[in-house]
Amino acid sequence: QKRRRIWLIFVVGIGFFSLCFLMTSLGGQFSAKRLGDSPFTIRTEVMGGVESRGVLRKISDMLEVILKRMDSLSKLDNTTSSDTRRLDELSSAINRFQPAGLVERIQAIAQNVSNMAVRVEQILQNSIAAGKVRDGSSGQCEVPRDPRYPDCPGKVDWMRARWTSDPCYAFYGVDGSDCSFLIYLSEVEWFCPPLAWRNHTKGQINIYRPTTSPSSLPLSQAAFRTDLSSLLDQVGTGKESLSFMKRRMRRLAPQWGTAAQRLHAKLRQRWREQKKILVHVGFLTEESGDVFSPKVLKGGPLGEMVQWADILTALHVLGHNLKISMSVKELQGFLGVPPGRGSCPLTGPLPFDLIYTDYHGMQQMKQHMGLSLKRHKLVCHIRVIDTFGTEPAYNHEEYATLHGYRSNWGYWNLNTRQYMTMFPHTPDNSFMGFVSEELNDTEKRSIMLNKVNSMAVVYGKEASMWKQGKEGFLQTLHRYMEVHGTVYYETQRPPEVPAFVKNHGLLPQHELQTLLRRAKLFIGFGFPYEGPAPLEAIANGCIYLQPKFRPPHSSLNHEFFRGKPTSREVSSQHPYAEQYIGRPHVMTVDYNNSQEFDSAIREIMRTKVEPYLPYEYTCEGMLERVHAYIQHQDFCSPEAPFPPANSSTKTQWPSGPGPQFVLLPNSSALGWAPNASAPPSWPPLSSLRLLASQDGQSCVEACQRAHLVCEPALFRFVNNKEALRGLAVQCEVVEAEVNHVFPAFSVLRRECGLQKDPLLYSCAGLSPKYRRLCPCRDSRRGQVALCRDCL
Hints:
By secondary structure, the protein is α/β, with parallel strands linked by helices. Among the domains are: 165-197, no CATH class; 228-431, no CATH class; 441-612, 3-Layer(aba) Sandwich (Rossmann fold); 661-777, no CATH class. Helices cover 38% and strands 12% of the residues. It is built from 24 helices and 23 strands. Strands 9, 10, 11, 12, 13, 14 and 15 form a seven-stranded mixed β-sheet that branches. Helix 2 (50-74) packs parallel to helix 4 (106-135). The relative contact order is 0.07. The model is unreliable at 1-12, 18-58, 72-83, 93-104, 132-139, 202-213 and 644-657 (pLDDT under 50).
């Protein structure tokens, strides 16, 4: 009866605050951050005066009274009649208080209600535990000394000293008693043996063990979608960044629909598993500071929002079950994370197959679900959207710390293919990309007819980009062309922009498209790096001119890249445009050489180009790539071990009578022998091309020079003596080490090294002392991320 009275009080309290919110919504003005928020996640702005503030004081005082009563109740020993009297006091206190007026701080009230819920839970847990003690079923809860649970006594000691350090312990019923510690450590965590007097068939917490299946239900089939209305509703409102993303989704919706039809035909109705996917956009959460949203209409960077909008659309169009989180509270709710600082594990199975987030989201997940990330295989479900890439040496926490690769963003110990980049610049990672608008033949002909041969548009929306030595080459450009800018300003023309530049101000996307379709040249200043704008300009028939960096920019010599988890050298403002597109659409020159710059402008004016968009940046190309990743990449299931060829033990994959590697026709590369068997892999072994790099050359460069792509997933098949023999390498010593350059060999010293830690398989690693063993692969035409047989 007492427990029912407690819950009645709690329900009355909830009803009271719901009434307050209803009055607020009728009498005040409020703006929801996102559709679907509960009343307590809505920021309310109320127009009120002295009366409202008086009501606030009364509410605050009453909340204090309620919390004090709850504190008192949590200390009850369940043996005196004072319990009923105190409960009556609390009930009458709530009933006496009659609200009048408006409420301003709904969020603050919500926190107090949450605290009340925790207190009530503590009381109920105490009541249950105390009842067991009176019944004699639990005794004094002595700490067991069980050799199967050697950590139990130490964990109990830790709980005695630190159980108040995280509210999640109280959420699970811990109240400071040894009984509550043992219940928690045996039923929520797994350090102590189950208690004999506990009922293990009812009410025991279903803890999330390493089993990571999101559901025991039968698998569902994914079906392509062309209607984006439900996705647009999920994205929500309340921020300019979200409005920008939704405008982009609507504008490209017809192209996504056409792309879905094409891919559906290409896959020939192949069965596709529908995945449960959570997308947590960490950099747009209030908890991360969200510096992007306020700058959307002021010339700020849009590349990340472009990519996230396209990722969400691709996942939706592919037919997957999608949930979108734009706040830490939503993240916790979707994952079922207990309130607190992440010290307690998740309960129940993970409800998602995949979680797409960014580095900000990773930090938030670590903060709020740290134990679950450490103890369970949660990280294998995560995909990190990472603009500039993360190399293995920076990703491996211990190795990075010992060898000077520690950075601000790395050290997560993921499989580096879980990082997904904006451009295919880091083969160790997976290339996610984005899309640009694709033109039909009629639009292309119209653009070519209406091009203004002497018109240039400058790539630089912020006035600060026009500073520091731009005058010289702008004057040269002005001698040949009419120069246009799209620099943001509020009232006065930015003084950094020369007077001869026709500045249109910050343009909406459709007006910018119109400008680019008339212009002959799109010229970059050297910053921002690797954005989407150059591809959009090239797709609209512009020639893109950009500066060559001498020496290349990297984390070793440039402030922008310092602290980023990569040693990649950036040779120009947009290396993808330079390396994968090139002339005549892209020209990369030294801006400090006035003669070279002048010559480039004159060549551009003579050159005619058609609008061009690489297939991998079309809607169909992105759908194809994301589909292949979702269906084939699996970082949760352990990879079947591939034993070295010189192993004396018999294996389930015999290498056959001949060698594992054979010389390919008209090539210096080795391929996988047709009669050599191996465990299944993706990409398949039919795509493998084994090469040896030169001294001091990375596998990225070695494969590129052979018009191939380094494939980190295939390192495990070449990390053996058979691969060394196939390349005719003479080894006096073969050792396995933890070294991000291995597998590799030294010709002079006749030393060979194999990789001991698979997390350090690295396409990017290089050393002047070694030549690398490089697992290259072929690629689909226009789709560098996938091999020919990967789809």
